[in-house]
Amino acid sequence: MKKLLPFTPFLIFIALAGVFYASIGRNPTLNANGMVGKMFPAFNLPLLIDRNEPIPATSINLEQLILRFQKQGEQRPWLLNVWASWCPQCYHEHQFITSLADAGAIVVGLNYKDETENGLGFLNKMGNPYDIILADQEGALGFDLGVSGAPETFLIDPKGRILVRHAGVIDREVWQQKFASHWQTVTTKPLFEEPLRSSAL
Amino acid sequence: MISDIGQMLLLCCAVMLGSFSIIGFLGLSSLMPRLGPLALQMVKPTAYLQCILMLISFCMLIYLFLSHDFSIAYVAGHSNSFLPWYYQVSAVWGGHEGSLLLWVVILGIWYALVVRHSDALPAPFVGLVAAVMAGVQTSFLAFILVTSDPFARLPLPYPLDGQDLNPLLQDIGLIFHPPLLYMGYVGLSVAFAFAIAGLIHGELGQAWARWTRPWTLYAWAFLTVGIALGSWWAYYELGWGGWWFWDPVENASLMPWLAATGLIHSLAVTDKRGLLKAWTLFLAILAFSLSLLGTFLVRSGVLTSVHAFAADPTRGVFILCLLGVVIGGSLLLFACRAHLVSSEGTISLVSREAGLLVNNILLCTATFVIFIGTLYPLFEELMGYTQSSVGAPYFNAMFVPLAFILLAVLAVAPRLNWKRHSGSLVKLMLPGLILGVFTGGTIWVFFGGSWLVPVTVMLVVALVWSIGMDMRHQIRYAINFKQGIARFKSQYYGMHLAHFGLAVMVVGIVGVSNYSNEEDMLMTVGQTYELGDYQVKLNAVNTLDGPNYKATQGEIEFKKDGESHVLKPEKRFYITREAVMTEAAMRAGLFGDLYVALGESRQQNQWAIRVHYKPMIRWIWGGALLIAFGGIWASFDRRYRRPEAPAISDGTT
To answer: Do B338 and A6 touch (CB under 8 A)?
Structure first.
């Protein structure tokens, strides 16, 4: 036994090397759906900006948010887009988020681990497609959602159950593959009328 | 042309060091002793030559940056003709390829210095140390040449201008942060090389630990300053007002620091008492392994972070092979040879070495905690669960109790004698403890805050009191005061200074985490606000042109008791990268920083302004500097330089 003890660090290293090897080049989006099917976690967060009210309420929680969508009329699913001004891909993704909003989807922004003025600067420059933006400076809600970084996008049904999660940049193709079918089971109507052309993006 | 020469120099170095390393390992171990004399002759010339070649190659990359050679992919990706010259120089290590080149250049310097200053050691031992360092150097050069060549050319047509350096990195902090950090990372390779050489050699006296100590202290001091500088940079450049984020990049640098801190202390036990030899060897390997992991963790695509250096999975396999050879190989060697290194003697429960052992256990636990927290997403994902980040709550919950125990042990252990301490511990510590409880309680009553405040203050006071008492005790036994001061070895001063630095740092952490203030205001030009004791006035908002950015600059006046000062926070738009950066302005003070960031203009002439008050935050970095300075001071101890040290036999002949 005493002779084997010095080998433990080596064996641990071999095991770790195996973990590293398995993780190299692995697409984190493949397995990143632990929250799917679960209820959206409770939160209470300050608002970065609220498009419908000039002076935003200081904070909002999950019940208020769901109530707000129900007040707005029909039962529709909503999207949560995790973004930040420090995230280069978010600039890239923003155009598609805008087209989602233009097509009539409710998009809630989660400004993730960002500074208020940097976040507002992002919106000033890129435009604001979000219905409402939660400011998650500490990454608390992000933690509960299992967010590993920005951007990430969730589709949530009117009752607050998470239907789809996508880590990484969302575009038309991703929407068609992962989101569109779930969207239609709730709304019966596709968000985008014309079918996806392979050269559309 | 220049770039081809630079590349050739790296290749020459790799070939030369690779062959020397093989000859050295074969000739100086028992495998092929007839190569021994050849290896010994090669030690000095190769060490000096590689250092010179590396430096020339590095200067060539700097030259390529300064001459705006955008035909080089790395230059085009990280520089721009409008970038000020000093950032062009620091852009050399602003990305993956260049920072790796910096890594090997620094290793080249350490390597040459070790060979230069080891004349007192037996030649075969120095030869083995050099062979280990040459081996590490060769693997890194191979990695650079195969996967990350900073001299690689772009295909025609060449871009007219570069893509500019990431604006986050255009900063004084980044000019110095990576070189200092790398001095630390790479410096730990010396202790590593000594450990491997010792294991191959098979016989380890206490002298081995003595030689390793000053080198480890230098590396550790550099690492301390490097991490502190990184934290300072994050504080003022990221504009979030925080100083530590438990971000994978930060954790990657903290792990080798903790391991190296453990190593310094266990080296003391091995040096003074000849105990814990195998453990010390293991820590030397561990500290350098964690440095390697720190260098690569964030670059391989295994883990990513907001610091956003290039993360490229295609390099991952190569990195893993490199780590496998260096870390796996040395751990295997350790496993096979550790039984040769025996320590005789026991550790009694109340003694200096017992305290140091507890310190080691705590520091290793802390390293382990950070390791698990940083790699947790990786394990979890592999098991098929969702990827979740382990954030500050986990680290704080795990780290704070460890820090408490560590502080408590730290107050006691340096006052204990080696071998066996006789005398009452209670009598030794009670006055300091009472003083601590009183101070902590008073502060809590007056300032409030969480229960952690009085507990930490109590421990800090007990620690500082203990340091003072120890010095007083030492002086009292001298003939007079002057002689008492002179009696102390620089190692003794260094130790107490570093411990005192830790106390200062902890005070800073307690202050800033419990009594920070943050206020958002909407102000029009000319308007005055009352904010605590201050009258805040927005004097003007101007626009100005920087070399490679356009900025909006606010002029905010703070008045308090008739005294006034103006802070000028900026919002910069970097043209080439189309990125907006917040340049916070701050007024640094010994007891607190005033930190102002300029927000957006909401309506006409109305500006969002965020004011932070960060009490004691400077103490954190000040404490870190004291810690590093203590390390340097301790390394000057004459005991480390005594020529009669050699106790390792020339076993090969």
So the answer is: yes
Whether the CB of A24 is below 8 Å from some CB of chain B: the reply is yes
Mutant choice from B250, B388, B578 vs A, greatest count of A C-beta within 10 A: B388
User: By CA distance, what is B311's nearest residue in A?
Assistant: A25
Residue B253 has pLDDT above 50, yes or no: yes
Mean pLDDT along residues A127-145: 83
Residues B216 and B280: their CA atoms lie apart, in Å, by 12
| Burial of B346 from C-beta contacts in 10 A (0-12 / 13-18 / 19+) | exposed
One-letter amino acid for residue B510 of the chain: V
Asked if B278's CB is within 8 angstroms of A6's CB, the reply is yes
CA B9/CA B225 separation, integer angstroms: 31
What pTM, to 2 d.p., does this model score? 0.78
Rounded to a whole number, what is the distance in Å from the CA of A185 to chain B's nearest CA?
A: 24
What pLDDT is attached to residue A199? 37
Q: Which has more confidence, A57 or A195?
A: A57
User: For chain A, first and last CA: distance in Å?
Assistant: 62
Q: What per-residue confidence (pLDDT) applies to B30?
A: 80
Contact at CB, B320 and A24, closer than 8 angstroms = yes
Residue A120 CA to residue A126 CA, distance in Å, equals: 10
DSSP state of A161: B
The ipTM assigned to this model is 0.80
Reported as a pLDDT band with limits 50, 70 and 90, residue A2 is low
Residue among B302, B597, B600 minimizing CB distance to A24: B302
| Mean predicted lDDT score pLDDT of chain B | 84
Residue in chain B nearest A34 by alpha carbon: B386
Residues B485-490: contacts with CB within 8 Å, 24+ apart? B489/B637, B489/B638, B489/B639, B490/B633, B490/B634, B490/B636, B490/B637, B490/B638
